[in-house]
Amino acid sequence: MKVAMLREFGPVENFEIAEIPTPKPEFKEVLVKVFATSVNPLDYQVRRGDYKNELELPVITGHDVSGEIVELGPGVENFKIGDEVYYTPEIFKGQGSYVQYHCAHESIIGIKPKNISHLEAATLPLAAGTAWEMLVTRAQLKINQSILIHGGAGGVGIPTIQIAKAMGGVVYTTARKVHHEFLLELGADYVIDYENENYIDAIQQMTDNQGVDIIIDTIGGNTLSDSGKILSQLGQVVTLVDIEKPQNLIEAWGKNATYHFVFTRQNRNKLDELTKLVESKKLKPILNKVFSLAEIGEAHRLLETKGDDENFYGKIGIDIE
Ligand SMILES: NC(=O)c1ccc[n+]([C@@H]2O[C@H](COP(=O)([O-])OP(=O)(O)OC[C@H]3O[C@@H](n4cnc5c(N)ncnc54)[C@H](OP(=O)(O)O)[C@@H]3O)[C@@H](O)[C@H]2O)c1
């Protein structure tokens, strides 16, 4: 089968389209013919070598699969050949999704929503799965709670806004001005221009100095320590991003805050819930651009640097022939 492989970590030119044997499903695993995958920051972080201590070369990255089951390993109980499925591969235990065929344990795959294409479905497992983990599993957002979602126009921000609205939250988000109209249409209640406004002052003004109940940090840096300034009493902060330097969280004590540190975990249950949201049209994938597997380097360049399109938002799909 054809794969996009890295024999060395580094620039996008390091991707090589190679032929390797198609894997055989082991106990409780299924073999999936991959129709589509997508690109996430985690993929360019892997490519650059940010995880070189955890991964052995050659590496095949990729964190989203949408495809069809073509073979069952021994002991599979919940799926049959022909089922259309989607999931996030466990690349720290095996292969990623930049492949024509992929083996996965049945406990981490879900039935793909029927009303969207494989390319659209491949935009969801990592990004929307992370949104589910943050909002439902960890913060447990309740109706009418207020939530600030940083980076609303990003791969994670887009499903997080939609799921938070489906759960009845009041959504504040940050984005460059060029994305505001799109985000308001998507369902955000208030959008703050992070380039030209101080988001801390804006939240204080909009909430009458009460702050928000939940903050979703997809940015890192000072966002973690500054969050305490605009949290309501007993508020929660959920962060996805590594902390590069020591943080002073003194403000958090005054707010009796709870901090959640999230690294997405795979499971079928959350994919089943995402499928229900997509089929009831409460969650829609925003697929903005599609590349072939041979163009994977170009897809990475676009996500990492925004290429020649600095107004880009939404997800990048990879069509696997
Ligand atoms: N821990 C986990 O399990 C996990 C899972 C998924 C993702 N992540 C991490 O979460 C982060 C976001 O992922 P993603 O897929 O959403 O990335 P993405 O698609 O590249 O989006 C990043 C977004 O951040 C916005 N942004 C940049 N600087 C900002 C600022 N100062 N204030 C507000 N928004 C800002 C960008 O908006 P503009 O385009 O307008 O500049 C862009 O929309 C990445 O670091 C990723 O590695 C972690």
Envelope shape: globular
Q: Which residues sit in consecutive blocks of at least 5 with pLDDT less than 50? A: none
Q: Count of helical segments? A: 10
Q: Helix proportion of residues, in percent?
A: 25-40%
User: Mean pLDDT score, rounded?
Assistant: 96
Descriptive terms for the model:
10 helices, binds NADP nicotinamide-adenine-dinucleotide phosphate, 2 domains, 321 residues, alpha/beta
Report on the structure:
The chain is α/β, with parallel strands linked by helices and 321 residues long. The protein folds into 2 domains: 2-124 and 285-319, Medium-chain alcohol dehydrogenases, catalytic domain (Quinone Oxidoreductase, Chain A, domain 1, Alpha-Beta Complex); 127-261, NAD(P)-binding Rossmann-like Domain (Rossmann fold), CATH 3.40.50. The chain has 10 helices and 15 strands. The protein has helices at 41-48, 118-121, 125-138, 157-166, 180-186, 199-206, 223-227, 250-254, 268-279, 296-305, and strands spanning 2-6, 15-19, 29-38, 65-72, 84-87, 101-105, 110-111, 146-149, 170-175, 190-193, 212-217, 231-239, 258-261, 287-292, 315-319. Strands 3, 4, 5, 6, 7, 14 and 15 form a 7-stranded mixed sheet that branches. It has a 6-stranded parallel sheet with strand order 10-9-8-11-12-13, sandwiched between helices. It is globular. The mean pLDDT is 96. Bound molecules: NADP nicotinamide-adenine-dinucleotide phosphate. NADP nicotinamide-adenine-dinucleotide phosphate is lined by residues 40-42, 126-127, 130, 150-151, 153-157, 174-176, 179, 194, 218-219, 240-241, 262-264, 303, 313.
